[in-house]
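hey can u run this one w/ zinc ion bound, need the structure tokens asap thx
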Amino acid sequence: MDCVFCQIVDGKIPSNKVLENDKFLAFHDINPKAPVHVLIIPKNHIDNFQQSPGEMFGDMSGFIQEVAIVTGVDKSGYRLITNCGENGGQEVMHLHFHLLGGKKLPWAQNLSKDPKTSF
Ligand code: 5GP
Ligand code: ZN
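ok here u go:
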């Protein structure tokens, strides 16, 4: 399996862990875009949001809320993002949510890499 995040789950690639249970893992993004930038993944491989079973989100939302508490952004607020597929800008094909916080985030940060494009 050459999936980077599966290798992180298996401990074959090191990560800076924030929280873990039997189903989910949270770890710091290697290239943080905010003072708090944590990736939250299911331990089982799922390609992306479009492939995700709805039943998973009951447990996952509680886990994400716990990550927000552990990283101290539950009261100050945060942004939760999942990029899905090519047009969504997904680079790692293992479902993950980005939890970003620790500062007031501008809307649509880095959404347009081309300065000529206004959307
Ligand atoms: P995507 O663009 O797929 O939504 O985001 C992938 C994220 O994974 C990026 O923010 C990138 O910095 C992060 N990332 C990629 N490889 C690794 C890794 O080996 N370790 C960690 N901690 N983060 C990674
Ligand atoms: Zn995977």
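The domain at 4-101 is CATH 3.30.428.10 (HIT family, subunit A). anyway lmk if its weird
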